[in-house]
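Morning!

This is the sequence you dropped in the shared folder:
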Amino acid sequence: MKYVLKNQEMQDVDKETIQQIGMPGLVLMERASEKIARRLMETVRKSDRILSVAGCGNNGGDALAAARILLEEGYSVDFTVVGELSKASGDLKTQYDILTRLGYEQKKEIDYNGYDWILEGMFGVGLSREIAGIYRTVVERINESRARVMSVDIPSGISGDTGKVLGCAVRADATVTFGGPKAGHLLYPGREYAGRLYVEKIGFFDSVLKKHAGGFTYDREDLKRLPGRFADSHKGTYGKVLIIAGNETMSGAAFFSAKSALRMGSGLVKVISCEANRPILQSMLPEVLFGTYENVKKALEWCDCILFGPGMGVSERTKELLEEVLQCGKKPLLLDADGLNTVSRYGMEIDYPAGCVLTPHLLEAARLLGISAEQVKESLTDAGQRLADRFRGTAVLKDAATLVVSADRPVYYNSSGNNGMATGGSGDVLSGMIASLLGRGMGCLEAAVLGVYVHGLAGDHAAEILGYDSMLASDIIDAVSSVLGGISNESIL
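The structure's back. Tokens below.
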């Protein structure tokens, strides 16, 4: 797990580390610069020409100190400071003075096309205004050049809080940041502008990061959080998942949810749907149990969790079924697709003590909140928090970068997945995976986070084999076994 920070949170980490713990700022800068230089040296050839472009803040100090380290290692490096040096931070002036005492002078007239690599450190995550003037000119020239670009902390012009472009922004091939990723690294379009992200340790202790961070993300180490399997077990040990899904024209939604739940490790999956879907589902997926809508009450007593909504359509019948689930259900509930649309269409209130997970895409979230999809997109974290608070549950806000939000808990920013997953049925697959984890006893937040992360990893694996354009929802399901197969779970007698 990595902590994810916003601008003010990172400033608070800096302040506590320097002022209260006593780690000198120049020590942090030197360690950061060493990490930057080493990352560049992994790729840059000695024959390459490098330009270090610094702003007047400490981000620029990192860029200048990294330039000095590269010069010491024999690389060909020029440097320049954008802005008034007289107004620069004290630490940047220190780095600038060291370079001049070593006999190096900043380059004033620059042909950006004359370099193979540009190390860019004009602005850090604290930027809150649009880039203008000479800074905008420099950003444009960097982007127009043939050089590859590495940014310090975050590409200049990207908001560290939202990932938005503040007027204009550097398009980096790689970014080196410190302590933990920032929200702007993981949300689009910042995620695309950052290129490959390197997160380096330079002296920010985990206890300080944890204290201030309002978010987190997972990496492959967190797959160990998935529930294990036991030698002394049976199908009931791994959860009984009830899926209420699919109308006469949407059997595929029920199929995708059910198959993904089984692939994720569920012991038993029962689909409640219309009678017309019985032969389709039982021929395509003979492992699934089947019942009709008349059997809902009995199925609610049988199950360990409930998934309601994929492919049901919005109708009075769907509303009545959902009301029955809300009244009689005693196990965790996941509302997806037409379950959510039914809530918004009929203005239903959700008060479900057993735990509720909502998995809306942007338009579904907009309907639930009574705002536009553009307003949801404008501030994903705020929209997710409003959903979690209003429905007293866990909100999985699905976008190119999915968020998971639960009241009074840190926000999860997903780092897995790709644009090949933007295909029909992908959301049904995700809901089935989360339901599987709920059925196996995980809490709502943890099941949602792990389900989202594994779903993205499966999509990444499928893309490696098939490419982005050719992926289908069924390919994501098939790739789940490859993801889970990489986990070593010891059997417990």
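Headline: The longest strand covers residues 49-54.

More detail when I'm at my desk.
O.
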